[in-house]
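Key idea: predict the complex, not the pieces.
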Amino acid sequence: MYRIAVIPGDGVGPEVVQEGVKVLKVVGELHDLNFDLTYYPNGAKHYLKSGETLSEEQLEEMRNMNAVFFGAVGDPRVKPGILEKGILLKIRFYFDQYINLRPILSLPGLSCPLKGKTCKNIQFYVVRENTEDFYIGLGSRFKDKRNRAELNLSRELYEIKMDIELELKEENEIAYQIGLISRGGAKRVIRYAFELAERKNRRKVTLIDKANVMSDIYGLWRDVFDKVSREYKGISTDYQFVDNAAMQFVKDPGQYEVIVVPNLFGDVLTDLGAAIQGSIGTAASGNINPGRVSMFEPIHGSAPDIAGKGIANPIGAISACAMMLEELKEYDASDAIEKAIRSVILKGKVRTPDLEGMASTAEMGNAIIKELG
Ligand code: NAD
Ligand code: IPM
Ligand code: MN
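Result:
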């Protein structure tokens, strides 16, 4: 029996999560697995009604679950950052989910948007660091109108801020956001990338950063990589600056096997990765802490432009369920889902609009379920 927290969220989140849950139930029957699902209403509607993003009690309840299945959050009615930071990042940080595993595995049968490339060229894993870098929330805006409690500043710091602001004219406003890499934080995620390479029979790990400019944080990042890589004799290494990497993703994605990348650059590159493997609608991710509660979700967001139309591709969410089962060591059930997705794509009859088809979200979910049976 697995206890799963389900957070459908906003926009297309609930639409794709519904298909993921349908698939989970069927795969559960076929493989003799029991899922006890607890739904959480958190998202824009809940926030606009109650002022709450996600509570401490809810987080504590999730601590006793085996995993979290997440849709997406974000809504045009709510200021950017409130739901994203208050719900999604809150969970990633609360459970110290330091690995964000984002497979970029193109499916046979999908047309590749890159000229002269096929799915064979796009078969790699991105390991995105998930709890450090520019995501730690350390920043400030001078001339910030929020009060001391909202800013969470000590009385002394707040008074210094007010003194500075008295002198500062609106047109001279400044803001800053600090990035942080710790030796321990880098070590554990880089080590995971090498372990993953061994597990998945890959022979190379590529490190991505911008050590030529942000040489303090990414200098440390590289030092740790050098040290850890020496322990994995059979695996070769490569280094790339992120600007070049963005170009290489388009020009020569076949060179990658496993990538390890800091949080922010990893966010950007994996949307690009999702696009070159076929569509952002098919890309999945796992926010993993091997010893704690992990969370699985599609890479995409709430997609307000197509929400409510029933045309979002649910493959990213369904594939996230397969990743969840793999993490729970239910390998047969996980493989069965992956195989069913592949089969539907290869047959080519059922395709959502992002894959140049006419199928609805539910039709895609049903087609995958049919292949499972
Ligand atoms: P997005 O990923 O929601 O959408 C980008 C584009 O991809 C849109 O054109 C959308 O229609 C398309 N798309 C996304 N998912 C799709 C699917 N399943 N099938 C077909 N097409 C799909 O990114 P955005 O527009 O930058 O962000 C929208 C909102 O989502 C924002 O509030 C953002 O903060 C939030 N967001 C949340 C998450 C998350 O919860 N994990 C991730 C990214 C963005
Ligand atoms: C993602 C998203 C999130 C991120 C946002 C919504 C906080 O873009 O999961 O890729 O930046 O990590
Ligand atoms: Mn993103």
